[in-house]
Write a structure and sequence with these properties.
2 copies of one chain form a homodimer. Chain A is an alpha+beta fold. Chain A has a single domain, classed as Winged helix-like DNA-binding domain superfamily/Winged helix DNA-binding domain (Arc Repressor Mutant, subunit A, Orthogonal Bundle), CATH 1.10.10.10. Helix content of chain A is 30%, strand content 28%. Chain A contains 5 helices and 6 strands, in the order H-H-E-H-H-E-E-E-E-E-H. The first copy, chain A, has a 6-stranded mixed sheet with strand order 2-3-1-5-4-6. In chain A, strand 2 and strand 3 form a beta hairpin. The N and C termini of chain A lie far apart (35 Å). At the A-B interface, strand 4 and strand 6 of A face strand 4 and strand 6 of B. Strand 6 of chain A pairs antiparallel with strand 6 of chain B. The site of one zinc ion has 7 residues of chain A, from helix 5. The structure holds a DNA duplex.
Chain lengths: 134, 134
DNA sequence: TTATTTCTGCAACATTGTTGCAATTTGTTA
DNA sequence: TAACAAATTGCAACAATGTTGCAGAAATAA
């Protein structure tokens, strides 16, 4: 399915910057930092980029993978909608090359804490990616 | 042990703002957002607050619990030093009252991912705290 | 093609991050 | 205690990101 169809399926009009963001995020396995997105989308006003990211998040097309040192990383979603955001995967950041990957776990992680009722979990792992450990 | 002694033990001079920050962070079970710290420490220049937080983190007295929507949350460490930062606990944020707690798990969480070598984990849970679920 | 709705770019301002530097404060030594 | 050296603070200054209002442009519906 092409990006234009994806946008329509999520109640979003097809515009240049939306197509450009989806293209910039590539295959969805990696998250891109805001700064890199802004650089790649330099032809557009940064306010538009800001609002477009909000819209794509809201409609379930992308998600914020992590925030670090004031910079947010964004990645494609797989199968989310406005009313159902499901991100049961972890984010792995390589301390060496800085790459941030969206990785699915084979076995589910679950635990409970006394007194509190857990709705969602965000897990960020750091270490060395396969490319950098070779 | 009082705050002044704690500072000395971590190779830090005893100054007003450092004592004030340690006092503002209370008993260490909860993390405070930057904005709240800045408000509580209004008598000091914000650059000094910025650099003092960096120094306290570096020396192992406090840690950044989480970053959310461009705001960082800080909490006291327990037993960290400049050369050994160990934070084997999770951060829980209540969706209702916004409180962020540092919670230790009874059982260790560990998992592996194919191809990558994991050095550290950051886990943030969200839900409803005991006070808000009552 | 026209009308309606949505989106974009621009201006404007707030907040946080960050560095340099001179004045002040702290800890040390005589 | 006084003088000294080292570390810390406050202020100015600038960068980056977040955020809103609004008018013109673009996308869809009729
Ligand atoms: Mn992800
Ligand atoms: Mn903590
Ligand atoms: Zn790597
Ligand atoms: Zn609560």
């Amino acid at each position: 399915m092409d990006a234009a169809t994806t946008l329509k399926n999520h109640d979003l009009r097809v515009t240049k910057i939306r197509l450009a963001i989806l293209e910039a995020l590539g295959d969805g396995h990696q998250a891109k930092p805001y700064g890199e997105l802004q650089a790649a989308l330099g032809e557009f006003d940064r306010t538009t980029l800001y609002r477009t990211l909000l819209a794509l998040i809201e409609k379930g097309l992308i998600h914020k993978a992590l925030e670090e040192n004031g910079e947010s990383y964004y990645a494609l979603c797989g199968g989310c909608t406005t009313h159902a955001h499901t991100h049961d995967h972890i984010h792995f950041k390589c301390n060496d090359c800085g790459t941030v990957e969206c990785l699915h776990l084979s076995n589910e992680i679950g635990f409970s804490l006394p007194g509190v009722d857990i709705d969602s979990l965000e897990i960020t792992a750091k270490g060395t990616c396969s490319a950098c450990s070779a």
